[in-house]
Amino acid sequence: MEPVVAPSSVVVRNYLGPGDERSLADDVLDGLTKPFKELPPKHFYDARGAALFDEICELDEYYPTRCERAILQARSGDIVAVCDASELVELGSGTAEKTRLLLDAMRDADSLERFVPIDVTEAMVRDCARTLVGEYPGLRVHGIVGDFERHLGRLPMAAGPRIVAFLGGTIGNFTPGSRRRFLRKIARLLRPGVDHLLLGTDLVKDPAVIEAAYNDAPGVTAEFNRNVLRVINRELDADFDVEAFEHVAFFDREREWIEMRLRASRRMRVDIRALDLAVEFAPREELRTEISAKFTPERLSGDLAAAGLELVDVLTDPDGLFALSISRRR
Ligand code: AVJ
After folding, report:
1. Closest C-alpha residue for ligand 1 atom 11
2. Cβ-Cβ contacts under 8 Å for 153 (sequence gap 6 or more)
3. How confident is the prediction for the chain on average, in pLDDT?
4. Is residue 7 over pLDDT 60?
5. Half-sphere exposure of 211 (CA within 13 A, CB side)
6. Whose CA is nearest to atom 2 of ligand 1?
7. Ligand 1, pocket residues at CB < 6 Å
8. Which of 24, 98, 196, 253 could form a disulfide with 83 if both were Cys (CB 3.0 to 4.6 A apart)?
9. Are 302 and 327 in contact (CB under 8 A)?
10. CA-to-CA distance for 99 and 80, rounded, in angstroms?
11. Structure confidence by residue, pLDDT tens digits, 16-32
């Protein structure tokens, strides 16, 4: 039987090793034994967490996804014209839903050659690779199953001028210092005069608008937040009483970031059997689960400059809520 797609058009490499499940265990051991308990947000995203995040993106209150899509719908052609790229690398590609707008523009400019998605979920990378080669004749996909914080070094040699896209505002999950360090790592991937970074950042605005996006009326974000406890219960044989934790999200006006926390409704002792660890929560004690930084134009250009990048253009939606910036190596 003739294959529908030439087998050589899709390559998927998995760089997640046996040691990688350690990451949750290490993060839980570190984070839950700190004087102010915290967990990194990357552990939200098991299958249920990813589905809840997709639901968040559909909420009236959650503007970032909608705004970023609007910018891409209006400006993908301009972005592709400025970058003149034949290859799109996407960090944290997920379902690559918004990515299609860029791929469309590259196809229309007749420059599209290869898509390089990086995501931790192998099924996601494989499904999206298969779907996209079907949708874009001649497209090659080199998928990387890995953690974009650790596996950037596994990118294939560039096939041509590159756009490295980091969308959704996920850069906001980094604390300021590690944000600049990560941007510097990305910058080192870019060849001066050839490649570009396309970065999505949520913007500083009326705190009420930001806070509403993380305190939606139907409570989807609350479920998403609590999901990290379900992940720990399942993966590390723990006994969190998930419903006994209250969702808290507020905009820290000083630091200009959203903080999400889980607040223990009563005194609790949690056993995390896989770690042989018992964790005590005082009544109303809070566990920080995410920061999501919001950007002023100064913060954006400052962070990029500190990473050795210079802005080429900043595109925003009509309401000025979200920004997509194009930058290049200085
Ligand atoms: C995917 C990290 C961009 O920070 O807005 C959504 C995750 N958290 N609602 C964000 C999230 C709560 C989202 N990012």
Report:
1. 53
2. none
3. 95
4. no
5. 10
6. 170
7. 56, 64, 168-170, 172-173, 214, 221, 224, 290, 292
8. 196
9. no
10. 12
11. 887 676 689 999 999 99
